[in-house]
Each structure stands twice: as C-alpha cells, then as structure tokens.
Amino acid sequence: MGGMTVQVYVGPLSIEDVVAVARDGAPVALTDGALDAIDKARAVVEELAAATDPAYGISTGFGALATRHIPAEMREQLQRSLVRSHAAGSGPEVEREVVRALMLLRLSTLATGHTGIRRETAELMAALLSAGITPVVREYGSLGCSGDLAPLSHCALALMGEGDVRDASGTLMPAADALAAAGLTPVELKAKEGLALINGTDGMLGMLVMAITDLRMLLRTADIAAAMSVEAQMGTDRVFAAELQELRPQVGQGLSAANLRAVLAGSGVMASHREDMFHRVQDAYSLRCSPQVHGAARDTVEHAALVASRELASAVDNPVVVGDEVRSNGNFHGAPVAYVLDFLAIVAADAASISERRTDRFLDKARNHDLPPFLADDPGVDSGHMIAQYTQAAIVSEMKRLAVPASVDSIPSSAMQEDHVSMGWNAARKLRRSVDGLSRVVAIELLTAARALDLRRPLEPAPGTGAVVDLLRSSGVQGPGPDRYLSPEIETTVSLVQSGAVLAAVEEEIGELQ
After folding, report:
1. Calpha distance 514→512 (Å, rounded)
2. Burial state string for 355-369 with b = 16 or more CB within 10 A and e = fewer than 16
3. Is 46 helix (H, G, I), strand (E, B) or coil?
4. What is the DSSP letter of 138?
5. Which helix (H) or strand (E) element contains residue 165?
6. Treating both helix axes as pointing N-terminal to C-terminal, what angle do 487-498 and 424-455 enclose, rounded to 10 degrees?
C-alpha cells in the first residue's frame, strides 16, 4: 500500500491523486468538508423520500420503468435489486488499477454533495480502497451512458457484502469474508443510494487518466528512440533547429524537437558526418518528421488532459441534488470522454507506425548506410533483428484496427429510453491495448537502435543515447553478436520502457526532457 493518504474533498482530484490510489495503492480518506456536503444532500433526499409525490430514483423505478411509484416499505429492496440486477458483467476480470480508479472517482462524485448518498456508505467505499479490497469487475457490461453501470454495480455489490472481491494480496474470495477480515460491516442501501453508486462515467475516466499518464511518458521515450535512430542511421539534426520549428509554432512539435536536440547533443556519430553533404541531404520522413508526428500526438494528449480535468471537477449522477431539489439531467452521457479516448488511440497508432518505419530502415542494406543486413552478425547464417520488426509490424497492424473509433457506434437499450449511448468504456478498453502496444513498438526501436550504435563504434554516441545503450547492456540485453533467443531481450526492454527507466536514465545523464 502507498505511504501517502489521498484526501477526497469537495473539489476535483488531480491526475496524480488518481494514479497514486489506482496504481500505488495509496489509502483514501474523506475530509470533514466532504462529509458535511454528503450529510446536507442526504437530508434533501430523505425529505423527498418522505413526500407523497414521486421522485425519480428515490420513490420510482429506473430507466424505462421510471413510471412506477415504489411504496416506502419496498424502497430498500428497490436499491438492492438495482445493484444486483445491474451487476451483469461478463468476461475476464478488469485490472486492479482500473477498478481502484473507478471506485475513487465514484467516491469523488459522492464527496461533492450532489448524489444524496449517506456518509456511512461513502466511508465504506473509502475503507475498501484503503484496505486494498478490490471488487471483481468484468470486461463487458458498460455502454458508456447512464454511466459505467455494470462495472460500478459490481463495486456497489461489494459494499453490500455480496459478490466476489480480491483482497490486498490478490486472493479471490466472497466480499462478505473480505469485509469481515478487514473489520468492515456491509451497508444496507437506503433510498437513492444504489443509483448514486452506479450512475457515473468513472471507469472510462479512470482509464483515460492512466492513459494520459502513460502517453506523456511514452512520447518522451519515443523522442529518445527517434534520436537514437537518427544518430545510428547517420542522419542530420539540422532539421530539428529551433528556428525551423518556430516557423510552425505547434507546441508539441517544438517540445519534441527540443528533446531530439538535447538527446543528440555531443554525439560523436553525428559529428563524424556533419559536413558530409553528399552523404545526407535530406532524411526520410520517418526520421525528419519525428517532431511533427510526436508533437501532434503530445498536443492531442494535452487536449485529452483538459477534458479529463473538467471531468475530474464534475459531479456525474442522475438525478442530482441541487440546493433543496433533486433534478434529472444527462451528465452521465460519456461522449466527452469517449471522443478523446478514441482520439488517443489514433495518435498512439500513428506514433507506433512512425517508430516501426524508423526501425525498418535499420534492417535494409539499401537504406541503413553501411550497416550489415538486418544488423546480423553473419547475414544469411544469422537473421539479426529481422523478426523483431515483424513483431513491431504485427503490433502496429493491431493498433491501426484499435484506432477505429468506438464512440461512433450506438445500440439503443432500456426499451428505447436509452436510445443513444457513447460506448466510452469500449473506447477505454481498446486504448489500454494501444498504449501497451506503443510501449512495445518503441522498445523494439530502442533495442534495434542500440545494436546499431554499437555497430558504429569506435564512433561514440551522444551522452543521452549512450545512457540508453548502457542501461540495456547492464540489464542483460546483449550487444551485437550471433543470433540468440531474442524474446527475453525484447521483454526486458519493454519493462524498461513501461517503468520509465529509459526516460529516467536519459534525464539523469542530460537533464529533464520537455
């Protein structure tokens, strides 16, 4: 479990807060201000529950069944039935970090004082997070409208002491047993509480937040890989000059070009042919245009971060408590999140595509500028990195398919009451595969470029790129030589990319990148 405690208050959580709880296991606590807001909204719900006039979600059915008035003696059953029936997920378990993010973000909405939840219910959700108890949520079940209903219902079910969870050690067990072992008591849901627990876009938002975090790191790592490719392919860095980038003042492009300049600074390889105008006039697009592609991807990530920041400041529920009223609304529709999730899958695919093209240039004798075919030790006997590029190509092909947007689809549900949905959960699920794919494609480019830089010796790489070569070699990834079992070296490099170790090694050597 993490050492810091994330305070959930009346106000937006930061991206860093979400990652701390979701990935690092940080415990959670509701502030006094949040509890006061929760109590105030609850009083409004209880007043409406006691009234004779029907109020949606409090004394009526749900969705297409909202026309039925539910008598007071059946309202607790109404909330239990809602959660049980909506916990209808299917397929593989969703990752622990996704479920923790989903729970935290639902708790953040509860803390705004607009849902009408009771404080003991909100406190139990915080306690589950702090105890590391993670409900089992299934892959399929959310349409991204009326919120992530099925995923959130599986979490609400655990608060009732029902369904399955995994404890802090990852052991699968009944929720009742896990709560008892942690000294926690299940809640008996009261009026509106079941609805308040499940009617949010928290799952897709949690996955968006983590994708933004990962892509910010991966795109800087892709700048490092591009620099290594330019260097080892005897390319030119003249095109990355600041005055050229300023002619097209796209923010991300300028930052990416600055990174390429910094990573290539002091390169003996670059210096060896800097004045050789015959050797290189213009590089291929995959080298020369790296800042334009990486930069556009970075700008898209920051647009997604703007959308995420607005969502983190939102109270997504229906109906919501506003003043002394409970009012219906459509804020549970996931379109704003779904669109940027799809957008990020597009840029991840394109960043991977240009990385694969840079890698492929290393392997072709006609284009790699005096390196051996496929960087093989004894070409013909050895195949070198031939099939590593096949692996890249297979991943990039999959990522292009994953870039097809989910948010343009809609299947009506709930007897046509919910006749247009966002499919944002699906967009988030495929983006997670895309982000993983990008990390693997960039890793293979780094692995290949490092081998090429070793083959350029005695020419010395730049301090920044040399730091990556040194990291790989010290991590058990060998340099040039006869063919060997390559998959473990790829997986080691993937781990170094995904953990941020590659980026950290470069920044330790030359300072922080943009």
Report:
1. 7
2. bbbbbbbbbeeeebb
3. helix
4. E
5. strand 164-166
6. 120
CA distances from 86 to 24, 89, 152, 157, 181 (A): 29, 8, 9, 9, 27
Q: SS3 for 348-396, per residue?
A: HHHHHHHHHHHHHHHHCCCCCCCCCHHHCCCECCECCCHHHHHHHHHHH
- 141 vs 164: CA distance, rounded Å: 17
Q: Cα dihedral angle (411, 413, 416, 421), rounded to 10 degrees?
A: -50
Q: For residue range 288-308, what is the model confidence (pLDDT) as tens digits?
A: 999 999 999 999 999 999 999
Task: Please give the distance of CA 469 from its chain centroid, rounded to a whole number.
Answer: 28
Q: What pLDDT digit, counting tens, does each position of 436-451 carry? A: 999 999 999 999 999 9
What is the rounded CA–CA span in Å between residue 426 and residue 303? 20
H or E segment to which residue 421 belongs: none
9 catalytic residue (yes or no) = no
Catalytic residue among 56, 140, 339, 485: 56
Measured between alpha carbons, how far is 106 from 73 in angstroms, rounded to an integer?
A: 28
Q: Domain 207-314+348-510 belongs to what architecture?
A: Up-down Bundle (1.20)
CB 316 within 8 A of CB 336: no
Q: pTM for the full model?
A: 0.95
CATH number for the region 6-200 comes to: 1.10.275.10
Tell me if 6-200 shares its fold with 207-314+348-510: no
Domain ranges (residues) in the chain: 6-200, 207-314+348-510
